[in-house]
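Researcher: I'd like a candidate sequence for this fold, 518 residues long. If you have to choose between options at a position, lean toward the conservative one.
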């Protein structure tokens, strides 16, 4: 083991050490333990991703002593390494390429007709750049948050208070399981052929330039976001899904706008379909796939298949060592205090199931820490703002129009662009980073919708397609939960032109005693 407790490595030095371990593997683990602190650990966090790192930081801030153990040589987990950060990189690329292709050959834009952009250099760019966030989190955790950790070696659970790491044994009053989840694999012959990727193996293992056709399996967030990236690079992109794509968005108008825009960019969707075979060539590389569709079986030639068929929890070790209670899919069951079926053992993050979002992981870790330190704290994941990236940024919260009409007698809808019987494309909404679309391709300038209970005047749902609204939705969500009304939203001061016209739409109607839609 390499003891770093008495060193003061810069972020640059951390980057060097992390790179060595990711490249060479098998190097000694990095240990930061304060040997002068004789207190027993209050908790060992098995996993230093979002849930473990934030949980340990919160416990430390409350005066406790946490220890983080992670198999990776860095803290921060899958977000900067495989998940959130690369997905944002590729989504930025997709948005930029949409701009380039939409205005190809006009103004100062290059001619993109018939051009295919290389994927491999983009993946390699991310691969080189991801060490920076890793290094910063190691530096911050040690030097600023005073966290103790053992990194770069997997842990073995001995019992509810004990783990073994690289020949050393560590004990604590509590154990917090934060080992995350992994992408499910296809249960088909050929799923391990070269050229078949998920979100993690794509960034770790891609070593060739994919050909002209990409097949994406799945219809959820990850599938759609990566499919839009592949499409934006100029490849024929076929999305195979058992259910309708974008089913997670609870509003029909919003889904329809997005599907129209994606199909306009050339994306092909096969809903109600199932991948049934992957065929390889003599070198073990995928050469085609077979798909069962509602209208019959088809074969697609491709050397590139991206799968996004769900996540599986890394719960096997806890089940084997502790006999911990899990659901039918292997996710660990917890109560509202993040406690598992085993006394003194907690579970947080993706390990406990959906929603698999960063806020839930961080807050779950925080609530586990509060309970470990003697505070009774209950975490219930309630209504929250959600988002995904297509070629656009999409945000939503609350009820879709269809859901609202099932619940309320008088539903009022305010939306942009407005319904237009003349079929004229109106350049609304028009906000940050959408102005060229508004001026030259109005139907691409976005979509917005507010869903209102007309009787109480309360906002019950909000939807945005465009760019720049994500931050606003973070603050809009708690206001909606507290009963935000049309009148209150109309009283706010907008930063014009802002990415969200919700304030303006409400101000246009707030004076009406009886609300009407538009």
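Model: Candidate sequence:
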């Amino acid at each position: 083991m390499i003891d770093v407790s008495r060193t003061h490595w810069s972020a640059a030095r951390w980057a060097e050490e992390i790179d060595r371990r990711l490249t060479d593997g098998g190097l000694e683990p990095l240990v930061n333990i304060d040997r002068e602190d004789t207190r027993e650990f209050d908790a060992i966090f098995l996993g230093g991703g979002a849930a473990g790192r934030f949980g340990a930081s919160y416990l430390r801030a409350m005066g406790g002593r946490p220890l983080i153990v992670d198999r990776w040589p860095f803290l921060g987990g899958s977000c900067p390494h495989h998940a959130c950060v690369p997905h944002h990189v590729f989504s930025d690329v997709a948005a930029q390429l949409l701009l380039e292709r939409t205005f190809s050959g006009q103004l100062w834009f290059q001619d993109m007709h018939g051009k295919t952009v290389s994927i491999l250099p983009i993946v390699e760019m991310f691969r080189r750049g991801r060490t920076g966030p890793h290094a910063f989190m190691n530096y911050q955790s040690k030097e600023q948050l005073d966290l103790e950790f053992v990194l770069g070696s997997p842990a073995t659970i001995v019992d509810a208070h004990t783990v073994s790491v690289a020949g050393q044994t560590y004990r604590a009053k509590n154990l917090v399981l934060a080992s995350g989840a992994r992408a499910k694999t296809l249960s088909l012959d050929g799923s391990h052929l070269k050229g078949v990727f998920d979100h993690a193996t794509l960034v770790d293992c891609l070593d060739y330039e994919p050909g002209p056709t990409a097949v994406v399996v799945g219809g959820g967030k990850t599938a759609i976001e990566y499919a839009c990236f592949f499409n934006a690079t100029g490849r024929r992109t076929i999305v195979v899904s058992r259910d309708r794509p974008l089913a997670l968005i609870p509003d029909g108008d919003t889904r329809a706008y997005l599907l129209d825009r994606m199909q306009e960019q050339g994306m092909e969707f096969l809903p109600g379909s199932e991948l049934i075979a992957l065929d390889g060539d003599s070198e073990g590389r995928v050469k085609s796939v077979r798909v069962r569709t509602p209208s019959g079986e088809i074969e697609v030639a491709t050397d590139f298949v991206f799968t996004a068929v769900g996540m599986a929890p890394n719960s096997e070790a806890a089940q084997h060592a502790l006999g911990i209670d899990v659901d039918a899919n292997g996710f660990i069951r917890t109560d509202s205090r993040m406690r598992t079926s085993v006394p003194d053992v907690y579970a947080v993050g993706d390990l406990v199931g959906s929603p698999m979002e960063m806020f839930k992981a961080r807050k779950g870790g925080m609530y586990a820490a509060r309970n470990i330190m003697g505070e009774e704290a209950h975490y219930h994941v309630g209504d929250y703002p959600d988002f995904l990236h297509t070629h656009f940024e999409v945000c939503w919260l609350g009820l879709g129009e269809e859901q609202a009409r099932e619940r309320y007698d008088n539903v009022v809808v305010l939306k942009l662009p407005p319904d237009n019987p003349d079929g004229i494309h109106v350049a609304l909404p028009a906000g940050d980073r959408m102005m060229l679309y508004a001026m030259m391709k109005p139907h691409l300038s976005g979509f917005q919708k507010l869903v209102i209970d007309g009787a109480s005047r309360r906002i019950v749902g909000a939807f945005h397609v465009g760019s720049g609204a994500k931050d606003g939705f973070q603050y809009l969500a708690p206001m909606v939960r507290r009963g935000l009304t049309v009148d209150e939203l109309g009283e706010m001061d907008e930063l014009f032109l802002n990415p969200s016209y919700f304030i303006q739409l409400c101000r246009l109607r707030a004076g009406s005693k009886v609300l009407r839609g538009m």
